[in-house]
Amino acid sequence: MQKVQPRILxxxxxxxxxxxxxxxxxxxxxxxxxxxxGFLPLDTPVIEYSEVLLAKAGGETEKQIYRFNKGDNxxxxxxxxxxxxxxxxSEHKEDIAFPFKRYQIGKVFRGERPQKGRFREFYxxxxxxxxxxxxxxxxxxxxxxxxxxxxxxxxxxPFVIRINNRKILNGFFxxxxxxxxxxxxxxxxxxxxxxxxxxxxxxxxxxxxxxAIIDKILTFINIKGTNDEILVALEKMGVKDETYLLxxxxxxxxxxxxxxxxxxxxxxxxxxxxxxGLDYYTGTVYETNLKDYPALGSICSGGRYDNxxxxxxxxxxxxxxxxxxxxxxFSQLKDQEIINSERKCLLDALIIPMxxxxxxxxxxxxxYLRQNDHKTDIYYGMKSxxxxxxxxxxxAVPYAIIIGTEEVxxxxxxxxxxxxxxxxxxxxxxxxxxxx
Amino acid sequence: MQKVQPRILxxxxxxxxxxxxxxxxxxxxxxxxxxxxGFLPLDTPVIEYSEVLLAKAGGETEKQIYRFNKGDNxxxxxxxxxxxxxxxxSEHKEDIAFPFKRYQIGKVFRGERPQKGRFREFYxxxxxxxxxxxxxxxxxxxxxxxxxxxxxxxxxxPFVIRINNRKILNGFFxxxxxxxxxxxxxxxxxxxxxxxxxxxxxxxxxxxxxxAIIDKILTFINIKGTNDEILVALEKMGVKDETYLLxxxxxxxxxxxxxxxxxxxxxxxxxxxxxxGLDYYTGTVYETNLKDYPALGSICSGGRYDNxxxxxxxxxxxxxxxxxxxxxxFSQLKDQEIINSERKCLLDALIIPMxxxxxxxxxxxxxYLRQNDHKTDIYYGMKSxxxxxxxxxxxAVPYAIIIGTEEVxxxxxxxxxxxxxxxxxxxxxxxxxxxx
Lengths: 436, 436
Prior knowledge:
Structural class of chain A: alpha+beta
Shape of chain A: elongated
Radius of gyration of chain A: 27 Å
Oligomer: homodimer
CATH architecture of the largest domain in chain A: 2-Layer Sandwich
Number of strands of chain A: 16
Largest sheet of chain A: 8 strands, mixed
Number of domains of chain A: 2
Largest interface: A-B, 97 and 97 residues
Strand content of chain A: 15-25%
């Protein structure tokens, strides 16, 4: 028969089991923290009407969409989880209680030109709180607290959540009469970590800003220090713009709330260069970096938006959210050897019957272990003991339980610790506690 | 602004949070049983090369595929999890240990004409064991044991796993010189539960079978009784075909293994009418029914196949697997009111501060509860106490924790059981145990 070469598309992540176990553990950790903070699960369709998904999109986003016709329908695959959320709350606003806290963990699709660290299909792990008309500023502090809880648990080393407020940026540029240029300038500033200060100056001068203005912009984004020092410096800037002053007020309040949450100060830092490329943010914005691995870029980002649902409804539904791009994060952590799946195994024990006559006893033992919440498997293949142990080794199982005729006769088992190589005889009745 | 009507496509399931919680609990139960039996997680791409996914497909399947071009690539969305598994094991056979036990829980896509109970996007929860060259018949018994463990835990009432062996069917038809007609006849027989015996007779006679043959077929598929009675009757049929005899031998062995696994006899039943429409099954096949709801049809099906990977590799990789169509199952169970999400809530408690001055204490309390693994939220909105309690009610939260100035002063809290309405004062330090 003519064979088809088994392969997948580039830009799609598919893992071997040990990596998949590790990936799922990370995903489960994220989910459990989201649930602990009261977020409700949501699972929107992968395929939606293009008209609905692309209500807001345009430019680069639209080019990346997987879009196609089926029957009479113009369809697209979701490219993020935020637009489906906006559609969902607009559609179901009578059926949900506000503030609506939801999480969604799922794949999204972007047909980008594949390059290292970029994926065409990737997991996003999102939370958002959506209010009806109003939304407490305390949520702006809750987001970093959630990020903190996740990354503390995931244990990739020290991290810092960088916080800014778009109102400060927008107000600052308004005070320079650069409101129309603001979003372009923000886009340039957003790259400061990647391209450095001089390149920023160069790009800004190419935008026909005079050097006094550029100096002011650079002075502003260079305000550094502790969170309190930065707040003081922002007030001392003498900017009279109301949006600016409101932004400073909000930022101060968020920092205060973070102290109430008892966030360790080392884990969050006001950073006036954070703008987030996306147009829809209107208040607090976040990025998160691993301190020991700055090259990874932001591993968790988000912010507040006033009106994401404007394309679907007249009601004002402000929200705030964060997103973890798990596929990219996992891939980077693996590349940097920050995570390691070498001995990843879900099983507690693999039972190895020496021959056919031991299988019934092995099944009895497996049933007993499973009833007591031990993940257990049996190797049924009738190969040599060497081949059987090799299988146990490849699975990286912590314990092998070897069953020969003697064990069957005495209702015992031989327990082998696969890491130390130690072996001991254990009574059937004692095995549950022995491997707990 | 011109609004886009927020809506999704028909044939796509999207749930409100209480239903989603219930759905996820079912999915988690299935996953945990799969893992307890040693299945490894897999997560293949949603999008694959059409050439790869459709290597085997044709006819009805191919018409249903979501297929499109992006750049130079001819792409399709996966329509099941079995073909991606076949591709995966062929592609990675050097990197995985055989027997390879994997589970995959994920969405698949079929652009069918939508009708009640049919979905275009739906979850499949699959397990398969794939061997390299050989695969113990004990796995044929392990599958029903896993089905049993899942549906016992899901608790939808009594169920029966119906078991057959395709070799018995194929051999029986060979003995009647109907090998070429066998798959057509099997397709007819497969409908017996839906259309009844007389309709089957009619359809078979339309296939130009003479009535003596039809009588034999009906006699055969009407063999009833206990599992042991059926096995005896099959041996007494006097069919000499070797495939038939091998099938009876296999079936007998599977039933014996099920007894070793101590499966309750009431939960499995040999049923010679089970054929499964799919062509690739070659041995044991299963269907599962809820005894009290026969109209639901099979809620978990599967079987053994000798060579699913033939399109990708010359190596013989036999397998056996089962699948639960969770989206359809959930939808049917809801419709029949077998499941109910009315009081579904993930939160253990919702903290309600009476006014702004109580928020800091509320945050302190929430942090303490979360640290002790209680899912906890705070209602920050500054509405009336009535509105706040209404929110707690809509969330169906088991406990509301009300914080007023007195509670703050005394470091206590007012705990309200939302189901009984009972209220009591509790010390801060005692709350963790109180709501456990």
